[in-house]
Structure prediction request, 1156 residues.
Amino acid sequence: MRLSQYYVPTLREDPAEADVISHKLLLRAGMIRKLTSGLYSFLPHGFRALNKICAIVRREMDAADCQEVLLPFVQPASLWQETGRWEVYGSELLRLKDRHQRDYCLGPTHEEVITDLVRDEIRSYRQLPVNLYQIQTKFRDEVRPRFGLMRCREFIMKDAYSFDRDENENEESYRTMQRAYERVFSGLGLSFCAVEADSGPIGGSQSHEFMVLAETGEDSLVLCSGCGYAANLEKAEVSPPQTGNAETNCPDPELIQTPGMHTVADVAAYLQIPHSRVLKTLLYKADDASVAALVPGDREINETKLANLLGASELELAHAEAVRSWSGAEVGFSGPLGLSVDRILADHTLLRESDWVCGANQDDAHYRHVRLDRDASVEQYADISTIREEDACPKCNSGLTLHKGIEVGHVFKLGTKYSSAMNATYLDAEGRERLMIMGSYGIGVTRLLAAAIEQNHDQDGCFFPPPIAPFEVELVHLAPQDETLAAAGETLRSAMEGIGADVLLDDRDERAGVKFKDADLLGSPMQVIVGKKGFEQGMVEVKDRKSGERTSLSLDRFSSEFSAWRNRVWHETWRLES
Amino acid sequence: MRLSQYYVPTLREDPAEADVISHKLLLRAGMIRKLTSGLYSFLPHGFRALNKICAIVRREMDAADCQEVLLPFVQPASLWQETGRWEVYGSELLRLKDRHQRDYCLGPTHEEVITDLVRDEIRSYRQLPVNLYQIQTKFRDEVRPRFGLMRCREFIMKDAYSFDRDENENEESYRTMQRAYERVFSGLGLSFCAVEADSGPIGGSQSHEFMVLAETGEDSLVLCSGCGYAANLEKAEVSPPQTGNAETNCPDPELIQTPGMHTVADVAAYLQIPHSRVLKTLLYKADDASVAALVPGDREINETKLANLLGASELELAHAEAVRSWSGAEVGFSGPLGLSVDRILADHTLLRESDWVCGANQDDAHYRHVRLDRDASVEQYADISTIREEDACPKCNSGLTLHKGIEVGHVFKLGTKYSSAMNATYLDAEGRERLMIMGSYGIGVTRLLAAAIEQNHDQDGCFFPPPIAPFEVELVHLAPQDETLAAAGETLRSAMEGIGADVLLDDRDERAGVKFKDADLLGSPMQVIVGKKGFEQGMVEVKDRKSGERTSLSLDRFSSEFSAWRNRVWHETWRLES
Prediction:
């Protein structure tokens, strides 16, 4: 491709609409354009990268014996009513009516459609297992679409669904997909990590997320250096304390005046005690119930764990008015003693101590010397706080490290959630009717493009891993008007294309500085620079965009030297296998 | 791929829901399944064919210097309001609201979105011409989705859009795309024909349709054996008569009683005159006007031509009540004398005669000896009837033939329809602001799959052209349980895959009859049959599915003999170039 013919409108300045680096660079490098909130057009430069990502995903899915299908984007409400998700999915499910006023939605995921397809066709255990996938446009009507391709409304996803005869077979399908995902992400040239995760609205018994590691990631994860335990912070278990209730002779509760002290920090400073001795009481509306959740002052509540524990589909912090009505005091002075709520739940790390400071349910007052088992009505102690870097690994007690990541894949064991709701059964070898065991497996294809940039960029632009670069090589031609040099450039281009590298030739009549800047911005991992001086010396300069390393190759032996250098960029710079 | 592992649920019987052959065979061969009215899922066997069609379309678009993009499926109403199509597009445009109650539609076509994209980026004549395409899901909320993939609501289309500096450059883009389309359809292995067409709601000054010839096609077209003129019946011009008003001494109109004679045939039989001497008067509501259209009794009115002549966006035959009110008589007795309508238009073939029989605008009565120029107020004579096989070619006067076809492609010269409505301008070399000249170019990708089957099938199933067959070869293995023969089968499979043929291996434990039936149904153009008897003789039988021809190949020289036979199937049976 000649840059002079290529539709790639680059921008010199960071666009005002973009907050994160991938969004900025996708716009600046002419890869995407915004149509309207959460909807993006892919221009040729972006589409090429997307297409290469899809090809790698497809290759690994096919190798894992998944078979490709294509399901409708527009889905009838009736299927979602069968599983009950028509009611519970919330406003991200965009509902619409056709000309006959029948209800439909735009598919955010396809569990219902695929289960409907399979239940009508599969009758016998001989037809199982089956694993079907598609690469397709999805729509989720995000309340605040943001960060470009990281959280948009219309996006491309690879979604696969497995149907197995029993739990063992399902376990095997799940592992096969985990391994396929590892090959996908390493094949794309990305640093990633698989973590235990919460299943969210998809449901099921077990799930893992695949995270591309990047400081700008929206997700937090914890990794254990000892046993390799890895989990999303939403999910990572916090161990209960090894020894319980240290102080048994706790005095009776004593009311103390704490005027204007709304926070744990205020109270701890005033009483000169560590934050960890102050009890934090958070009040929630969980579906229709009022709930108090207690955690130590030095820990954060984990709302995902709390919602799962409560079995609540909606959980939100109580408004000031509800706090006043349930506790009798303003926000900041709630405590478990004499509180009018339906349920009181406590984090199990609270079992380590028995002498607490907590809000007194009166304005400007706290209690000290509170013993939960004696003074409050705690319904249950459970794991409802978020893990911290200073906590021990829940599996092996080794040290933990926190990381940021971008969720690009998610695999779920669905069990019989959908097959029982939709009656997807088969006859086993003994002729008994049994429910199929399902799994579902997603990869965010468009988000992967953003994640690749979040992980690979510098102040000059992005540098794409060679397997997904729109062009693997940019041939920066400094004298395209010179006939001899133009012909030499064509020879080099043919040589590189001959060994399978796609080449973007900058044949524009522009200054060298502009060409170098654009080459860095457009992100080919390899640059080949053709200029008069080098040509006269029989040499051509090449640049490894990621490492910045420059080398000279001989014009005479260009094919073999380029091939060797290209291998080094793939294997050494990018640690890619092929 | 092994058939025992392949998710291809075939059906023995024709499904009741299917009327046309492609729909029946797509269902029977396990290629598609209906989700709900007009929405279909593609199973692996169907998806493979679709994927191959896309690859050929992509190859030819890229070769024609089109660049691939991907635009959102969900589109904001604001763009459609700019061009006015939000109001005029009708109910096929599925409108919806997002969570913030903003208006959107599901894209039935992308002129607005692409024009919006380009107007923001292209400023200078140096950036033109540009031609961008995408392969993408579209939605048209058809009032009666039918015939499976032939007329569904959600479908895949390749749509391209060109932006040129002037009419000449636009003419070149249009011709380039016409040639690319010819390469696409011949590359797919289909018999097709390009015809002049009406532009419909897309608009513009000129358009051509690409038709796959098939007796079951919904479209009719006319071909000239002399000059090669080809046109859709909606569009084909009917020449005006060479000589005018033969009878000049026409007597005065005479009222005759024609009780119960509502049709041309009734009246012609009663008066013993040819149908061609009876005047047919059709009454229409065209937007808000009442219109009478006159054609000779042996010709059909062409509503597309009439609507274009009137500039009407909605045209429908008047209801009985309106007929009564405008003519004073019931349907069947209307005529141009004393009719209360806004406009009277006449087909220009009526100029050949001057003595007509027509309805008298009284129940059970006609006039004879009507001379239109003397007795009626015809506003305009124009081409408003449909061409017939007995008409002469409008270009060269040679003979014509009528054919049926399936519209699979449509190219349009849009002129400045969209660029002027949306202000898509550029600065020319002299610094003057000018409107871009546009073209749009569609291919119905999913419909092509149905069209390929309508053109290539027999009572046993379909046979796909080799370039788009889900598998080019089916290896019908008659003894897969026999270890020696199983190994021999694997050797043959590797040999065929080694030269680029994809192979479906029927390794099921089934009777030979079942295997042959399924192979014919699944539609691979080549069958390789491995059995014990042939094996012992050192032979393997092959069958050309389309011609039915069977040959034996030597096991020893299988690779070269298969390769030669495969070339014959491609070039002789299918007349393919590569």
